[in-house]
Design goal:
This protein has 23 helices and two strands. The chain is mainly α. It has a domain at 1-151: Leucine-rich Repeat Variant (Alpha Horseshoe). The chain starts with a helix and ends in a 9-residue tail after the last helix.
């Protein structure tokens, strides 16, 4: 270890025996300051220089642990650590030997080592990636997991990680799966499909999540068996994946999930149908208005407002009589989005509600439906409705 450090010092000495510009010297002097704002400006200015800035590498590394937040009109809210990291990534492969030497320095803290791992991952240099692969055998769990996480963001590391997983536990497997999802690594899809059959429900759940994040699935049929998974969190994740993928082919399965025994699965399924916006979902979502769980009811009403289909008008009008003020508010708003004149009289009646928010939303919806505004004066609204032959629910 001592020998490595000596090599690092000698390398830095050779590096700084070269001529550097005045601007780079000023930037380095700022990096050496104890003032966080000067450090930030030093890194920022160095990053803007159109010249060889490799002479700043050791000094940038030295401020990576400085996370003091500063605010500036030009740079915004940042820290010396954040700015140094940006410049090291910009410098690229030249930084790798110095980063590795610093990592191997016995005096380097774990915080610094974790930051160095992240920077190596962003640079994506071959030597750096080989170094990260070696770190997957680290005894320190946190260092090991960080290296695994960074590698899982790189599509070229899929084969290495799959081979590595053969000797690892489910916890590490979950780390790799989530990394593939965060990195949107489509090359990992065959592996994730296999994980859908795993005995561990958490692996099934996070595999579904990762597939949804990647979002380039060719055939959603690989997910269908999990619609009836015994673990509700897996079923919920299936609905969430369908929401992200937004395939019209998932509509019938999402409608099936509206009958799930768990209300959270129903809520996510309704949200997914709202984003896909397929008319086949309207009637099933209308039925969801009558669900006993308030969260399901609210999401159904909100979604019908987005669909703007007049088939939902009467069921939503009935919801205006609900004892829950939130149901009344959302129903009044949804009716304004649908713009069906059959909602005029029920909304006029709400202008006298004791809840000010309900009164306000009802007025806004009336304005959307009618194009006129009589404020909270119910009598004027009734007269207008009569003159314009607006029908009541009973007349329909």
């Amino acid at each position: 270890m001592k020998k490595c450090f000596i090599i690092f010092v000698l390398s830095v000495g050779i590096l700084f025996s070269q001529d550097i510009s005045k601007d780079l010297k000023i930037g380095i002097e700022n990096l050496k300051s104890k003032d966080p704002l000067k450090r930030v400006y030093g890194a920022y200015k160095i990053g803007k220089l159109n010249e060889d800035i490799s002479g700043s590498i050791p000094y940038l590394i030295n401020i990576l642990e400085d996370e003091r937040q500063v605010s500036d009109n030009i740079i915004g809210k940042t820290s010396p650590s954040e700015e140094a990291k940006k410049v090291l990534i910009k410098i690229g492969s030249i930084s790798i030997p110095y980063i590795i030497e610093k990592f191997n320095d016995e005096s380097s803290s774990k915080l610094l080592k974790l930051k160095l791992i992240e920077i190596i991952g962003k640079i994506e240099d071959e030597k750096g990636l080989i170094f990260l692969e070696k770190l997957t055998c680290e005894k320190d769990r946190e260092i090991k997991e960080k290296a695994i996480e960074i590698l899982s963001f790189n599509k070229n590391e899929v084969d290495f990680l799959l081979n590595f997983l053969k000797t690892q536990d489910d916890y590490i497997k979950l780390k790799v799966i989530t990394g593939f999802g965060k990195g949107k690594i489509k090359e990992a899809l065959p592996f994730l499909y296999e994980c859908l059959k795993d005995k561990n429900w958490e692996i099934r759940k996070y595999s579904v999540w990762a597939i949804g994040e990647i979002g380039e699935i060719e055939d959603i049929k690989v997910l269908i068996p999990l619609i009836k998974d015994k673990e509700y969190l897996v079923r919920k994740e299936i609905a969430e994946a369908f929401r992200k993928i937004k395939s019209p082919n998932s509509v019938s399965y999402l409608i099936e999930l509206l009958d799930d025994t768990n209300w959270m699965v129903k809520v996510v399924s309704i949200k997914a149908l709202r984003e896909i916006k397929d008319e086949r979902a309207i009637e099933p979502i209308i039925n969801a208005i009558y669900d006993k769980q308030i969260e399901v009811k609210i999401e159904a009403i909100r979604t019908l407002g987005v669909f703007k289909d007049k088939r939902a008008t009467i069921p939503i009008i009935i919801c205006l009589n609900d004892k829950n003020p939130l149901i009344k508010e959302i129903s009044a708003y949804a009716l304004g989005e649908i713009k069906d004149k059959r909602a005029v009289y029920p909304l006029i009646n709400l202008l006298g509600d004791k809840n000010p928010e309900i009164r306000k939303i009802s007025l806004e919806s009336l304005k959307k439906i009618t194009g006129v505004n009589f404020g909270y004066e119910k009598e004027k609204w009734y007269n207008w409705a009569l003159q314009n032959r607006i029908s009541t629910i009973a007349e329909n």
